[in-house]
Amino acid sequence: MAELLSTAKRWIALDPDPSTRTELTELLDDAESGDQVAYDTLERLFAGRLAFGTAGLRAELGPGPLRMNRLVVRQTAAGLLKYADAVLAAAHGRVDNPHDVEGTKAHRIVIGYDARYQSDEFAFETAEIFRDAGWEVHLFDRPGPTPLLARQVLVADAEVGVMVTASHNPPQDNGYKVYLGGELSRYLEPDGLGVGAQIVSPVDREIAATIAEVVAADFAVDSATPEAQLSPDVPAPAGVHWIGQQARDSYQREALQLLDPESYPHRDITIVYTAMHGVGGQAVTDLLYAAGFADVIPVQEQFEPDPAFPTADFPNPEEAGALDLALKAAAEHSADLVLANDPDADRLSAAVYDAAAESWRQLSGDEIGALLGRHILERGPLRTGWQTPASQASTGPAESTPTIGNSVVSSRLLGKLALGRGAAHEETLTGFKWLARVPNLVFGYEEAIGFDVDPVHVRDKDGVSAALIFSELIADLKAKGQTALSALDEIAAEAGVHITGQVTIRVEDLSQLGEVTAALRRNPPAEIAGDPVVESLDLREHPLPGKEFTEAKSTDALIYLTAGGHRVIVRPSGTEPKVKCYLEAVASPDSSAPQAVTAARQNAEAQLQQLRSSMEQILS
Question: How do strand 558-562 and strand 567-572 relate by DSSP bridges?
Fold first, then answer.
């Protein structure tokens, strides 16, 4: 008890935020007075520390080391700085270091933030810590989309990028994402594939270790860290380079270059767009207007950034009901397409009208990925410069082949489509941190509505430029008398029907995530929905087929393939307290005739329901 109270007192002394300091002080006073409820609450708040991983940090706002707050961000930024300085010092110390191009010049960090509660404060705290250490700090002048931050890491050739965002999490959450670039990334990954991408293991563990060192020094008995000065507001820092409208205009110019107005000139569609109370509204609508899409109708109730997300308790476009306002507007305006970003605009959802059902239908991430993938296979790379550094130095045909890719939990449909057309395709572990590292990537996607149509300039998912290219695609289909749904039927006729879905198991806290997969390892299923399991793969111990296994690519995921060709993948979420089970049912049409595709689709949908019921029973 004494140790907990002592730790809480020290935390309070270091906390610069009057709000969280007051909350903890009141709990501490009540606990010391014998209030057991207050003590139990204090014990929960100090039961550990937010784990820093490849996704950085993400948690509920609040006091203590298990919540997102200004002290946690200060310690995280200080640990990140300590790590970066140490690695750069090692790089400079190597006589044969071919990437030591910066010499003694200041290193650069680029910082962006969304419009969530305290996002600007966390960004400003980070900026001050790096500025005081002599770094050249580039800071966005207002909240903006995550892909603009990812792009700016490349533009500035910055060693570090930080984006303060919790993406599509509930309103009370916030987060902290880290990218590496410049000299730092090239030293860690000499092939250059990691420049501008999010971190991967073991970098996350190494940064976490330096954060732990910072925290230990703060709480040491002889700590030199002074008590924090209370400051209710975090002013915009002086002595930084502000990133403003010029960068936003430059992003738009580059995105417009992705279009092919000669071969795909059509713009005659009505688009309803929702920003989901996030930061994508202005960027997306301005981009669509600039591209010639004149009939764009924003959902006004959700257009302006609002951290309370008043019309969406869970601001994820994939959640049931999230698109209700957009679909209502689409019906009122007889729209051709509904587009939706998540709050930091790195994801894109879409809905189209299903004439047969006489209702609007939201497309899955796999369906959007297949449509975009086919579009890019037919158009070719959307811009030049897609060859990665190693490829540029080689003259072999394999090294100069444009590649499309998707994560392993996404549908296998795009891979089959690419194989049938003789195109290069890569399957990666989950997350754009891996897709960004695919050599010669020209398009990548993951089923969680993440798409990258411009890997040359953005090494992460980008819901802004994806909205533009998907609009080009839909307008072209309309001009040909087709729809997104008829195009999906064409893809199914060519590469087979693939229907995907999920089963989700929520847990009380992140520490329980591994229990589900651990139970499956002890007792693996022999059959799923009556279909024998003929192959299983544990990605904690084995690589994806055709890949090389390394410790960095070890991940807690289990893959089961059945005799009927269906697939089930079980893995814990990397950012939320839930275990996800990814289902894929397949069927082959007897012919390319529409009725044959429809019959195969109905067969696969029935099989998917059986997979879902079976896995719900197994996981329970």
Answer: antiparallel
167 is catalytic: yes
Q: Tell me which of 119, 167, 364, 471 is the catalytic residue.
A: 167
Give me the amino acid identity at 601. R
Q: Which residue has the tokens 């004149």?
A: 294
d(CA 474, CA 363): 13
pLDDT digits (tens, 9 = 90+) for 46-76: 999 999 998 999 999 999 999 999 999 999 9
Based on C-alpha coordinates, what's the Rg of the chain? 25
379 and 263 Cβ atoms separated by less than 8 Å: yes
CB-count exposure of residue 583 (10 Å: 0-12, 13-18, 19+): buried
Positions of E strands within 166-305: 173-180, 197-198, 241-243, 271-274, 296-298
CB-CB neighbours of 337 under 10 Å: 24
Place of tokens 């006091």: 63
Whether residue 255 contacts residue 465, with contact meaning beta carbons closer than 8 Å, is answered with yes
Are the CB atoms for 564 and 531 separated by under 8 Å? yes
pTM attached to this predicted model: 0.95
Residue 510 binned pLDDT confidence (cut-offs 50, 70, 90):
low
User: For the segment 115-168, what is each residue's pLDDT rounded down to a tens digit?
Assistant: 999 999 999 999 999 999 999 999 999 999 999 999 999 999 999 999 999 999
Are 445 and 268 in contact by the 8 Å Cβ rule? The answer is: no
Read off the tokens for 529.
């929905």
CA 79, CA 76: separation in Å to the nearest integer? 5
Q: Minimal CA–CA distance to 181: which of 172, 163, 171, 193? A: 193
Q: What is the pLDDT of residues 511-558, one digit of tens each?
A: 677 888 999 999 999 999 999 999 999 999 988 888 888 877 889 999
Which residue do the tokens 């965002």 mark? 165
Burial class from Cβ neighbours inside 10 Å (0-12, 13-18, 19+) for residue 260 reads middle
Q: What span, in angstroms and rounded, lies between the C-alpha atoms of 15 and 155?
A: 35
* Strands (DSSP E) found in 189-328: 197-198, 241-243, 271-274, 296-298
**For position 529, what pLDDT does the model report?**
96
| CA–CA gap between residue 200 and residue 524 (Å, rounded) | 29
Q: Strands across the sheet with 337-341, in order?
A: 296-298, 271-274, 337-341, 348-354, 359-362
Instruction: Compare 545 and 327 and report the one with higher pLDDT.
Output: 327
In angstroms, the CA 559 to CA 566 distance is 11
Ramachandran class of 525: left when φ > 0, alpha when ψ lies in -120 to 50, beta otherwise: beta
Amino acid at 313: D
